[in-house]
Each structure stands twice: as structure tokens, then as C-alpha cells.
Amino acid sequence: MKERREFIKKSIFGASGLTIGAMSFSAKSYGSIIGANDRFRMAVCGVNGRGKSHISNFSGMDNVEIAYLVDPDKNVLNQRVQSLRDGDTKSNRVKGEADVRRVLEMKDIDAISVATPNSWHSLMVVWAAQNGKHCYVEKPASHDVHEGRIALAAAEKYGIVVQHGAQRRSSDEWRDQVSDIKSGKFGKMLVSHGFACKPREGIGYKPNTAPPSNLDWNLWKGPAVIDQYNENLVHYNWHWNWQVGNGELNNQGTHQLDVAYWALDDEVANTHPVRVMAMGGRFNWDDQGETPNTMFAVAQFANGQYVFFNVRNANHEGYVKEVTNRFYFEDGGKLIDGEYKSHNGSQARKVEVKKVPMTPGGAFGSFVNACRANDPTMANGNMFDAHYSCTLGHLMNISYRMGEKVPFNAKAGSFGDNKLAFEEFMKIHEIARDGMGVPVDQADYIVGPWLEFDGESEFFVGDRSVEANRLLFDPRRSEFDLPSPDKV
């Protein structure tokens, strides 16, 4: 909790500044407060996929002008620029740019939003901060643990608003469930369980080729170390490549991981897990994807609470979609789809429920409201929260990536005396066996090791820590390198 309090203190008051009443602003931050009637000018970066939603939402707001669209694909960029000019009178002078660095130099830009491949996310947060721009960054806010810490350091140092695209932070429904859980209404929570189970198909194989003439391949790659262009990277399937994406766990799963982390007791909600493990596989698909389409992961926190997570993507007859969060309590009760189901017929406790703070305006409007107030603490999911919830997924992925093949059967899971973890693993195992048709004893799980993590240093300790610590840092291309946290 101390680190979070320091983040809030630094965000609001700054290291040094002009005192006005009880508030303190640096001269730079005081001058950047944007009134509700002032035009808020921004750039949207990455406009092929999720960026289209950014354009639609921001352009629909009063006194918000999208001044620039940024994308390394000329064809996509030109289409989006023309569409926005035709559809929004406030943004009818919008310009297109391939390189975000040129846009960040513009003095009249207040903020950027980032909907690029994951390997770009933290770098754009850092560059935005260094140029005094606020930043809405899509999930996950980082591609690895180390760069998340650097982005957090930059947000703190420069006092910008960073809002993470974990949209459930702006949901009344999820805010109310988290508030009820934290209040003790259902007793002590033992397990916060996230599910990112949505049907997908394999991506097949594509040959390496020269990049198309409309694509600035150097800018598309950015920090990622990739040898050659492949159509199975551009524009969406990079999610299933470790150099650029993070798999479903930190794709769709970032939303559910964030809720799972959010619901933990306050004593550990702003810490990292003390140990993690993950297992799964990429079943039934013969393709170029690297990340698992089936996964069960476990993280244990210092107070004994757990986060479980399921990924289940391989489509099959009778597939049941599950994109949600569930919560299991000490007395056997469960909170499922917002409905509390007790173990023994008892009712939820009558306690005073203190609502978790939330800025109005939805996922995008709340960001603009926080920017207008120049208040990083108003962000619904700031960079501090983003770093901790994204790291949860990164650590699980690291365990999986260090895993070894184990025969596909019910004995594959290694959960000690954690009966609930074994029960939840068996559910996903039976779906893989009976629904997906994965043949018992003719296929293999990838079973990752239990890894111990020191939250203070943000390094692994204990068995296999040397190997695990190498995966905390992605290799980066020198043109797009990041400074250390103390030199942002």
C-alpha cells in the first residue's frame, strides 16, 4: 500500500511546484489544465483494429478534436483519415502520420491514445510522458515486466494522466462487485478467478516475404526483434507471437486479470504474487502461433489469496464461451455472474459497502475528464494499477514458456494440497479431452514450474530464477530502446 500512496502523492503534488491552497502543481502541469470548454486535441496511434473504436469514441465527444492519426500502413492510414474528415466536423482537418515521434513534438497536442501491437505500448507511454502528453494505452500496458516498471516511473516523474484500456474499471457492474467483495459482504475471499474463453481458429502457415510497399516495416516492428515480414503478423495475428504479443492471457485476458487483481484484499492488492505457475498447450492447431490456446494458471499472494486463470480458445462443437470473473469464498460461497451462491444457505452479510472510486464518463470519457483536471488519480485504471495487473499475466506466461512436456492426462497438474486448483484444472482438462477431442496419452501438456517472485525487487528468486529472470526483459532494437526507470 505504501508504494501506491507514494504514487498518488507524487501524481497530485509533484516533486516541486506552485502551491495553490492545499494543492501543489508544477508550472508545467498548472499550465496544462484544460477547461471543460477548451478544445482537447489528441492523436490516435494504431488505427487498423482497436484504434477504430478509439476514433469513434473520442471523435464523438464535445470539444475533443482528433488532430492526428498515426499508423505505419499507408493504406489503412489514408482510409481512416478520409473517413474521419468526412464524418466529424471537429476533426475535419485531421492529418495522417506514420511516426508517432513527429506527433509528440507538436505543442498543441494534449494526449495520445495507443492501440498498436503490445510491444509498442510502454514505449509510447514513456515518450508521451517525456513530451508532456497524457496517454490512454490499450491493454496490456506493457509487453514485459521491466518495461511496465519504466512506464510507471515515467508517469510518476512527469505527472501525466495514464489510463489503461482495462474497461471494466469504468463499469458500474464490476465496480459494485469489487466493492462488495472488498467490504467483506461475502466473507473472506480465497480465489479470484478469471476466464478468457472465446472461440478462435488456428492461423495456418504463411511464408516469409518482403513487406508490402504500403507498410513502413521498420515502424511496424518498433522495439520488437523480428527477422522478416510475415503475413501472419500483420495486422492481427501478432497476438500469438511472443516477440510482439502476449497470447490470449494478456490479450482478452487482461480485462479479466485486472478484475481478478482489483478484487484482492487491500493488504495485497498493490503487490505482486509470491509464486506462480501455468500449464496448457496449443492443441488441435497446426500453425505458426506460439502462444497457448488452452491454459490454466495459478498465482498465490502473501496473504494466502489466489488468482486462477483459464484460457480456452480452440473452437469445437458445443463450445461454451466464458469471458468473465468468478470469486470463491472461505465458507464455500461463490459469486458467479453477479449472483452470490452460499455453500450452506446463509445470506450475504449486512455490512457497510464502501464504493470503490470511479470517474464518470465511461472508459474513454473518464480519461478525458482526468486530463482536463490534470489529475492522474482520476484515471479509471492508472499506470500503477496497470503495471501490477499486467505483471500478473506476464509472470504466468513466463512459467508456461519455461514448461516441459508432460503426458496429457489428469495427473499433469501439480497443485499440492490445493484441492480447488485441481478441481478447476480438471474442468478445463475434461473440456479439452471430451470437447476438443485431445487424445489422452497421445498428446502433451506444457507444464511450467512453480516460480517464486520477490515483489520488492521485481525479480524471481529460488529454483530456476536465473532462467526466469531472463524473460522479464524483452530484447529490443536499439532505435526503440528504453531508459532505466531512474533515467526516464
Structure description:
The chain folds into two domains: 2-169 and 364-382, NAD(P)-binding Rossmann-like Domain (Rossmann fold, 3-Layer(aba) Sandwich); 172-356 and 385-487, Dihydrodipicolinate Reductase, domain 2. Helix content is 31%, strand content 20%. It contains 14 helices and 21 strands. Strands 9, 12, 13, 14, 15, 16, 17, 18, 19, 20 and 21 form an eleven-stranded mixed β-sheet that branches. Strands 5-4-3-6-7-8 form a six-stranded parallel β-sheet, with helices on both faces. A hairpin with a 4-residue loop joins strand 20 (451-454) and strand 21. Helix 6 runs parallel beside helix 7 (145-158), helix 7 (145-158) packs antiparallel against helix 12 (383-401) and helix 10 packs across helix 12 (383-401).
In short:
This protein has 488 residues and is of the alpha/beta class. It has 14 helices and 21 strands. It has helices at residues 2-13, 27-31, 51-59, 74-87, 100-104, 121-130, 145-158, 172-183, 217-221, 253-262, 362-373, 383-401, 419-435, 465-470; strands spanning 18-20, 23-25, 40-45, 64-70, 95-97, 111-114, 134-137, 162-164, 189-197, 208-209, 229-230, 275-281, 294-300, 306-312, 322-329, 334-336, 339-341, 404-407, 444-447, 451-454, 459-461.
